[in-house]
Amino acid sequence: MHRLSLAVAGAAAVALPLGACGGRAASSLGHDPCSLLTGAEARPYVGGLASPPYRSSDGAADARGDECTYHGKDGSRLTLRPEWEGGELVGKVVQGIPDALGGVLGKAAPGLDSTAHMVMKPESGGPWDKATWIPGGSLFAGKGSAQVQVDMSGASGKESDALAIARIAVPRLAHPLEYDGAKAVALAPRPAPHPPHACDLVPRPAIEAAIGPLDGAPASDTPETECTWRVHSPQGERTYAVAFVWQGGGKNYRMLSHGMSMVGGMVGVPGGDSALNSMKLPPKMQSMVGGFMKSLAGSAEGGGPGSATGAIGTVGFRTDTTLKGPWDNAALLHGTQLVAVKHDVFVGMTLTSADYDRARALLSAICSRL
């Protein structure tokens, strides 16, 4: 999955470590990260809550976590991560992101390096000393030595929503509410029931009905979260590599969607999903991209010798976010990846050597079992 959205992955690689600055500072100082925003105040941005706000670490419920998760019933998530001390250091790191991000994006696509300075911007007009918005969903707002990260990437991803929340949360850095986010962990949503081995989710007859007779037993390097099925075809071996995220799939899907829109805006494609859905490269460029993707992919993802040309050979370098099927949401991403979410479970499939129609049939068979 990480090979298929180079610019998005690069942006995430730069931004994600920032949330870890200070480690578990909130826990060590006795502050509760859920003390800056009430569940009622979060509802306009995530809808009805699946549970009371709870402490978490990297999205997982954790009684000692340094962030607070507001988990919507539809799988959306809003996360606040305060730094009660050392916020100035984090602020300096954030201000340096455009240079770091520009370097990553410049390698992924020449010409994007200068764009990083255009899409990240300081925010004024709020109860903070400094605030910086990172497209895709994160706002860093600091007051004195404290700072809070408002992460909207798992919800709307909107700058306006992050600013509205920061206007509530920042003044409370000095005067937090009384709340026990650790106690609420016991009520946090749990991962969806699933088999110990992902390959056992769908019976073999249903798999073969979707993609054809299997070439041997399915394989997996990480059995709980991945499965790869292979079939022979006149065009060569086809590989259907599928990855599962059993909890937090709604957030993952939204993050990916926001990231695609962000990159689309950076490369001058206005209009969000509708514009991305219309993007299609000329045949010669499709062939070049297809060969490039196969050279990047390992044999486990269908990039080995003797493998068939994947979906990009028939659907092109195309994105379609309007797919209909037994899922909550699903999308084809630039002809190289199918992703879906159902009941907060995320399913991602690499299409490096997969037939598109059969891959979509496999995705339907998988989501029908969730």
Describe the structure using short key phrases.
32% helix, alpha+beta, 370 residues, disordered N terminus
Description of the molecule:
- The chain is an alpha+beta fold.
- The chain folds into two domains: 6-187, no CATH class; 198-367.
- It is 32% helix and 18% strand.
- The protein has 13 helices and 13 strands.
- The protein has helices at 6-15, 25-28, 39-46, 87-95, 97-108, 116-119, 159-169, 204-211, 249-266, 273-278, 283-296, 312-315, 356-367, and strands spanning 54-57, 60-61, 67-71, 77-83, 121-122, 130-134, 138-143, 146-151, 226-231, 238-245, 329-333, 337-342, 345-350.
- The protein has an eight-stranded antiparallel beta sheet, sandwiched between helices. Strands 9-10-13-12-11 form a five-stranded antiparallel beta sheet.
- Helix 8 runs antiparallel to helix 13.
- The longest helix is centred in the C-terminal third of the chain and has 18 residues, at 249-266.
- It is elongated, with a radius of gyration of 22 Å.
- Residues 1-28 and 266-276 have low confidence and may be disordered.
Quick overview:
With 370 residues, this protein is of the alpha+beta class.
How are the SSEs ordered, and which strands pair?
Elements: H1 6-15, H2 25-28, H3 39-46, E1 54-57, E2 60-61, E3 67-71, E4 77-83, H4 87-95, H5 97-108, H6 116-119, E5 121-122, E6 130-134, E7 138-143, E8 146-151, H7 159-169, H8 204-211, E9 226-231, E10 238-245, H9 249-266, H10 273-278, H11 283-296, H12 312-315, E11 329-333, E12 337-342, E13 345-350, H13 356-367
Antiparallel strand pairs: 1-2, 1-3, 3-4, 4-8, 5-6, 6-7, 7-8, 9-10, 10-13, 11-12, 12-13
Helix pairs in contact: 1-5, 8-13
